[in-house]
Design goal:
elongated; 170 residues; 9 helices; mainly alpha
């Protein structure tokens, strides 16, 4: 990062971290984050989203939740994309787990989705699709249908696939 006397920025560090996690170099991405912090480069919402994605992809959704909860105390406002990243990560982790662990993680994902609107953020289609799919796969079609209604009430348009997911969930 100290090449050619170029001053690194949060954007350049985020790009490097994101590339590293996309190719599976999670530890190296974490080292870039530590380097960034040591150099006094302030994290932004994208830095947190990348770190949260890393925790989710490495099977540590609870670390992702902890980071999400601590964002504001670290001077960074949450946005809908960071919630969507956590919910997607929880769902993927949930999908791989068995029994009670799976159901408790899905409960956590539902709570997170409710936090999005409670904080005045606009939910994204991906967030709703992830939740609806996860709820239906866990035999909770009635709850999935309520999220479909919330989705429509927010002005978001579900596609035929989403309706079929709910129908198949019953």
């Amino acid at each position: 990062m100290d090449f050619y006397n170029c001053k690194p920025s949060v954007k350049s560090c985020n790009v490097i971290m994101n590339i590293l996690i996309e190719i599976g170099y999670f530890n190296k991405a974490h080292k870039v984050y530590l380097w960034m912090r040591d150099k006094g480069i302030a994290s932004d919402v994208y830095t947190f989203t990348i770190r949260i994605k890393t925790f989710c992809q490495t099977g540590r959704p609870h670390a992702a939740l902890r980071l999400l909860r601590n964002m504001t105390s670290q001077g960074c406002d949450r946005n809908a994309a960071v919630y969507c990243t956590v919910i997607g990560g929880l769902y993927e982790w949930n999908y791989r787990c068995e029994g009670l662990c799976r159901k408790s993680t899905l409960v956590e994902a539902v709570k997170l989705s409710e936090s999005v609107t409670a904080e005045g953020l606009t939910p994204q289609v991906v967030m709703y699709n992830t939740l609806i799919g996860g709820l239906c796969k866990n035999s909770r079609a009635v709850e999935a249908e309520s999220f479909l209604s919330k989705m429509v009430n927010c002005g978001l348009q579900p596609d035929d696939y989403r309706y079929n997911t709910i129908i198949n969930g019953y």
